[in-house]
């Protein structure tokens, strides 16, 4: 099924949608307002575990309710929230006169979805995009053998335990102390509140609602970023067409605002999410000239999993033949991919 293009607005929007359209910069982002409501409902369900754990839910009943909450959280809103946060970090959702509403997604809802306040914006916008997966990028994949699970584990544990320190030093060295304060402050405030909730209210609810999501989301983000930048041309590591991949025609794109179009996202980071499929169709020849890697029917997490188990043939069969790129057999595709998975020394 094709990925979604620009959304069609209802000729007779509901009163709720008419009100929302007056608040946002781009009417194509109306779905974000709808999603914010769903995420608020999810957050309230999480918060309800606190009074229930202290009154009604005891022992196994609590863990049954916690499991039900996490299923709702994971299957209903998690993936879409993360990509809404991504899109609204690049393109401001609410108009300037309603600017305070722009803090709701990262500061109010973010902690319920594994995102400590400010750190995503600082890492993604302040560091990752300017560095473009090159060696100064703290989440660069280049130094690793990118089809080895052991290498990914090293990559993940470094991020999980050291990123807040490395990120703050990165900003200080570049004279961006304000960004360093934001990143460190957001992390410290989050974990301070989590500790207080665990000690003085209920540790079980705190574990489920705030602590576990951080672990899960950081695993997913590092698996996703690994796959997005797994195939790097050592001769042209700065070229987004050769250091990123694109995934088309996937359920993930239909749920998550065309996030699979990662190549062009690094070419033009402010491109609206609904324009990516059209851009790709119009410029396939450009992708072919750069010998870009594009997969059909896969998403980043599937690409990561297939790399970890060495399923190169499955990856090769999913590769899109691009105009202007060399025609390759399945075996030649596998060898081509392997050349882009090798470590690139700094």
UniProtKB/TrEMBL annotation:
Keywords associated with the record: Membrane, Transmembrane, Transmembrane helix
Q: Which domain of life is it from?
A: Bacteria
Q: Which residues cross the membrane?
A: 32-50, 62-83, 152-173, 179-200, 207-227, 293-312
GO BP, sorted A to Z: lipid metabolic process
Q: Does the keyword Transmembrane helix apply?
A: yes
> Which Pfam family is one of those matched by this entry?
FA_desaturase
Q: Which residues form a coiled coil?
A: none
Q: Where is the Fatty acid desaturase domain?
A: 63-293
Task: Note the PANTHER family from the entry.
Answer: FATTY ACID DESATURASE DOMAIN-CONTAINING PROTEIN-RELATED (PTHR36459:SF1), ORF (PTHR36459)
Q: What is the official name of this protein in its record?
A: Fatty acid desaturase domain-containing protein
Species per Swiss-Prot/TrEMBL record: Enhygromyxa salina
